[in-house]
Design a protein that fits this description.
UDP-N-acetylmuramoyl-L-alanine:D-glutamate ligase; globular
């Protein structure tokens, strides 16, 4: 394993996944197919994605004192993630996500965050040396926003590159966005964050410009099967998606962000890291589940060739 370091500040959930011919409408019952429990959580997914790229990954998070917590920690450790800074909360259950996946591979997700919401700014202060040791910090919004802000403040003060995946989308304070080196929403999150339409390429560029105006140095808007848009001070660049046959899009964005973060931690330019993220995101859709779908480095390298 290389000496590159990624620190992930984020959520750890158990995904309760059910297959369904289609996503039910409100008030409707649909008879589905198989059911599985799969380790997930956007933070944990991104940590596993980065670890499978071969970089050293540490995670800051919370799980409950319960059977799901045991399984989640065992899975992270077994995936190569350093779990020494993950604390257990006796006063809350481990987070869960209820996920329905339809026959087209699309999903609908409801998250009950549990112990994730107990991760606090004080925890980030205590982890100052851990954050300072990183090349890249990855964060999302499935933990308290004030905790994300504090983590970004500490990382930024130490010269650590801050990558924020603003999901699930919520209003972002300028004190946070001004600390972000790379902001990575999908197109729906970009629309919610900016209040702008994203139906055309020009509109997506306008949304990216609006997000950069909040202080984020660079913005990546992921577009699913249409690839991703990179917006920097130098302009816009579109990266087409790798062609694969998707069977489950759950956590594809996390595969993108985690692999992007790993590539940045290795010192790769952002444009090159985009290809790593895009390849990992595409490969993840060819397997079922969240963390089980995160590709190995060898798979990403093969696709990039």
């Amino acid at each position: 394993m290389s000496e590159s370091r990624v620190v992930v500040v984020g959520s750890i959930n158990m995904d309760l996944v059910a297959r369904s011919p289609r996503i039910p409408h409100a008030g409707e019952t649909v008879i589905g197919g198989d059911f599985r429990t799969v380790p997930g959580g956007k933070g944990a997914n991104q940590a596993v994605a980065a670890a499978r790229m071969g970089v050293k990954v540490r995670m800051l998070g919370r799980v409950g004192v319960d059977a799901f917590g045991d399984q989640l920690l065992d899975n992270l450790s077994g995936s190569g993630v350093d779990i020494a800074c993950i604390r257990r909360a006796a006063q809350a259950a481990s987070g869960i996500a209820l996920i329905m996946v339809d026959d087209a591979g699309m999903n609908s997700i409801l998250v009950a965050p549990g112990a994730n919401m107990l991760l606090s700014p004080a925890d980030m202060d205590a982890a100052d040396p851990i954050l300072a040791s990183a090349q890249v910090m990855l964060a999302q919004l499935e933990i308290p926003l004030e905790t994300v802000v504090r983590a970004a403040q500490i990382a930024h003060a130490h010269g650590v590159k801050v990558v924020l995946n603003p999901a699930p989308a919520q209003p972002l304070p300028l004190e946070l966005t001004r600390l972000v080196d790379v902001l990575v929403p999908n197109e729906f999150e970009a629309a919610l964050l900016t209040g702008l339409p994203v139906g055309s390429d020009d509109q997506i560029q306008e949304a990216a410009t609006a997000l950069r105006a909040t202080g984020a140095a660079d913005v990546i808007i992921t577009l699913g099967g249409r690839g991703a848009l990179l917006a920097t001070a130098g302009g816009f660049q579109h990266f087409p998606a790798f062609l694969v046959k998707p069977i489950d899009t759950t956590a594809a964005g996390d595969a993108f962000v985690g692999s992007l973060g790993a590539a940045l931690a290795e010192g790769r330019p952002l444009e090159e890291a985009m290809y790593w993220g895009s390849a990992a995101g595409a490969l993840s859709t060819t397997k079922k589940g969240a963390q089980p779908s995160m590709p190995e480095r060898s798979e990403v390298e093969a696709l990039l060739k």
